[in-house]
Design brief:
Elements lengths: L7 H24 L10 E2 H8 L3 H12 L5 E4 L2 E3 L2 H4 L10 H7 L2 H8 L1 H7 L3 H6 L3 H7 L1 H25 L7 E5 L5 H9 L4 E6 L1 H4 L8 E5 L12 E5 L7 H14 L5 E6 L10 H12 L7 H10 L2 E8 L5 E7 L2
Parallel strand pairs: 4-5, 4-7, 5-6, 7-8
Antiparallel strand pairs: 1-3, 2-3, 8-10, 9-10
């Protein structure tokens, strides 16, 4: 069979078309159409009635999504779930619905749409457009904040499982999860190591909503001011990438002050690979540039950041997820 050569123009067109697919997935997540399905196919009439949408418009959306494996048209005007579509169900294991809603929602879109501001000034595009930081935005728009929090749980659960399986946490007695949100990571680790105790540390408005195991002590505070003592390991997932080096160093130095001499620091982050190697972390880095002023980092950059904050990077441990574990100790 003759191979058809794909031109550079077609490749770029296909890459741009990824935006259309993403927006279509977002529409499906917004109306919650995947939640209508059980084990049986549904007609467009049934789906439209359940989602309060216009049947022909809904059909056009699902037809497009079925062409990329999200839903399948099993007969004329009749659709069924596929494994990809099932990830859009709100309550399914491994649900991605809230991640879709967060990533494609107004807050993230505001950062991307105004990204040119970041390129020209080095400033945060979201802050310039919204007149406030992303964190202030979520505080003033609790519905968006809740979607973001649920999105982090959606994507965080498989990462937590991968982290718990990739590192020897049995060497510790008490782990402090700094900025741990709803506690999915520390909960998974404590569940896997029954002797462990945990401390879940986050802002007061976060801590008042958590529901964790009795072996995990919730503590409210601000990691820019201080971090609880009492742990022999200090754990942070997706905290460093939210902030620039100056603010990240403040957090790290507060951990350094709280840690015992023999303690270990564990950062769960995406590591940017060198050169032209493809990696989602490189595009996530652009999102952080425009959205929060944070950044993804290379191993070399983490080594430098940690050293300037009183730590020595010991090793970077890959996991079966998008994240690696950066292990560091206090410098002698």
């Amino acid at each position: 069979m003759e191979t058809v050569e794909v031109t550079p123009q077609q490749t770029v067109f296909d890459l741009i078309g990824g935006f259309w697919i993403a927006r279509s997935i977002y529409l499906a997540a917004q109306i919650g159409v995947a939640d209508v399905f059980d084990d049986q196919p549904k007609t467009i009439a049934q789906l439209a009635e359940a989602t309060h949408t216009e049947p022909r418009s809904l059909y056009r959306l699902l037809r497009a999504l079925a062409s990329v494996g999200i839903f399948t048209e099993v007969s004329d005007q009749c659709f069924a779930l596929t494994p990809l579509a099932a990830t859009l169900k709100s309550d399914s294991p491994g649900s991605m619905r809230y991640l879709v809603l967060a990533q494609m929602g107004d807050d993230h879109s505001l950062a991307w749409i105004n990204g040119l501001h970041s390129l020209k000034t080095g400033e945060i595009a979201f802050d310039a457009a919204a007149g406030m930081s992303a964190w202030e935005y979520y505080a003033q728009h609790p519905e968006a904040g809740q979607i973001f929090s649920q999105a982090m749980t959606n994507i965080g659960t498989p990462v937590a499982q991968a982290v718990a399986a990739s590192y020897d946490f049995s060497q510790f007695n008490t782990i402090v999860d700094v900025g741990g949100s709803q506690g999915s990571l520390i909960s998974e680790i404590v569940r896997s190591h029954p002797h462990l105790k945990g401390i879940l540390f986050d802002l007061p408005e976060v801590i008042e909503t958590v529901n964790v195991d009795e072996k995990i002590q919730p503590i409210a505070g601000n990691f820019f001011e201080s971090v609880p003592t009492g742990g022999d390991a200090y754990l942070m997932r997706w905290i460093m990438h939210d902030w620039n080096d100056e603010k990240s160093s403040i957090i790290l130095k507060n951990c350094h002050q709280a840690m015992p001499t023999h303690g270990k620091l564990l950062l769960v982050e995406s590591i940017i690979p060198p050169g032209n190697e493809p990696s989602p972390a490189k595009f996530l880095d652009v999102l952080m540039m425009t959205g929060t002023g944070g950044q993804e980092r290379t191993e070399k950059e983490y080594r430098s950041l940690l050293r300037s904050s009183g730590f020595e990077l010991k090793q970077v441990i890959p996991t079966e997820s998008m994240c690696s574990i950066v292990e560091a100790v206090k410098r002698a």
